[in-house]
Amino acid sequence: MVRAVVCRELGAPETLRLEEFPSRALKRGEVRVAIRAAGLNFPDVLMVAGEYQLKPELPFTPGMEAAGDVTELGAEASGVAVGDKVIVKMRHGAFTDEAVVPPSQLTPMPSTFDYAEAATYLAGHGTAYHALIDRGRVEPGEVLLVHGAGGGVGLAAVEIGKMLGATVIATASSDEKLAIAKARGADHLVRYDREPFRDAVKRITDGRGADVVFDPVGGEVFENSMRCIAWGARLLVIGFTGGIGSAKTNLLLIKGASVLGVRAGEAVRKNPALGEVRLKALLRWAEEGKLRPNVSHRLPLGDYAKAMRLLIDRKAIGRVALVME
What we know:
Elements: E1 2-6, E2 17-21, E3 31-39, H1 42-49, E4 65-73, E5 85-89, E6 98-101, E7 106-108, H2 115-118, H3 122-135, E8 143-146, H4 152-163, E9 167-172, H5 175-183, E10 188-191, H6 197-204, E11 210-215, H7 219-225, E12 229-237, H8 249-255, E13 258-261, H9 264-270, H10 272-287, E14 295-300, H11 304-312, E15 319-323
Parallel strand pairs: 8-9, 8-11, 9-10, 11-12, 12-13, 14-15
Antiparallel strand pairs: 1-2, 3-4, 3-6, 3-15, 4-5, 5-7
């Protein structure tokens, strides 16, 4: 029997149920993967609540990414072999012991990662890559302001931004989160509750402001970001965990600034070539030891609600993974 977390009604994580199903036979071209770990992302929480752009038909299993071992190949399935360690890319369905997918949803697991790291890599770092490279076009020497730097995508942006040669200002809500951001390359650290970040950015840059803002928070954070930007700044809208902010058009005009929406997954669906370049770069950087997700919590599959609450309550530092016993 295969265990899966099932959403039968929209709501809080506690409305989900862990259920068992018989393992189904493979169809032509399909691959069976024994899932060893699944990564949690904030869109999982939004999807379960019915507040995400993608609204799967009920019932569904949440989870956008996983890692495990190929255990069986269907007829005409090619490109993978039984025993391969792989990352499984999904729009939903990852919180389970077993996945049946086409080979196109699989990518080799970096040899430098364990299962939990592999299961928490591509979504967060892929979003940061798309934001900073495809959309923000960060250049060496520019100032990058990263909000929510203790979160999964924020910490990935710190890593990639530093690798691109930017001066990284990381903001977060605790010293513990900022310490991890510093270890991953942040040049300057700002705690929201100790100094208004807009004042800190002006102080750090001698009044010039940030060239690029990476914002997964939104709300007042987005609105205040417009008051500490340099000429020609790019404000990258990653998410809205803190609410939906309003863009002051006069501030954008005065600074010649741009507001850019970031949807890494949708960008690849519109232009698959973007995804191929991104994936090759992320896998290469992982193998070279340049990038690695920080997995602060590893919980068993049955603790799915507790794991999701870690994201909601912002207790995670980097990523959270469900690990199959």
